[in-house]
Amino acid sequence: MSKKTLPKAIRPSDHAHGALSEPMPEKAESAKVRQASSSKANSASAFGPDERKTNARRLVERFAFWAGIAGLLPVPVVDLAAVGGLQIQMLRRLSQIYDVPFSANRGKAIIASLVGTMIPASTGLGMASMIKTIPVAGTAIGAITTPAMAVAATYVIGMVFIEHFSRGGTLLDLEPPDYREFIKTEMKLHKT
User: Fold this and answer.
1) Is this model's pTM higher than 0.85 or not?
2) Which of 46, 55, 70, 122 is the most buried (most CB within 10 A)?
3) Within 10 A of 96 (CB to CB), how many other CB atoms are there?
4) Which residues contact 94 (CB under 8 A, 6 or more apart)?
């Protein structure tokens, strides 16, 4: 009885050594994507300080806009979760621009402490979200105030991190109380 040979793609001898006889198309494409993203990351570090700051400001403005959109969500706690998620993503992207190692847990803790530093804004955002539970009038008021507060808080948090990263700081050495005056100034500038 003769043994039937298996197709190349599933031959045990090819997989046993960890090498395939022919590259799989999706593997080749993912390698191209990784190479393009790594060259993009390397080009981000090749920017000068002014270009980095400009790119970072554009990023913060874009995330602030999306935080405003997330603030429009009609469900009270879901809108705050969406805004928080956007702020974490913004922090991750700012870390990439400034070549700072990012940890999601550390990022969440820092954003929480920054929000605590901005007590009036954070309390206002929470209240604006909770007011949506009141039928009709609460929904209308919440639909106006929550996005505005989300935009302001996200913008200010982003600007604090741009300032911190441009000074050579990392996620491990950010002290929110040191930025209290900077936050107050940014909030005043953003309100006008």
Assistant:
1) no
2) 70
3) 15
4) 56, 59, 60, 100, 158, 161, 162, 165
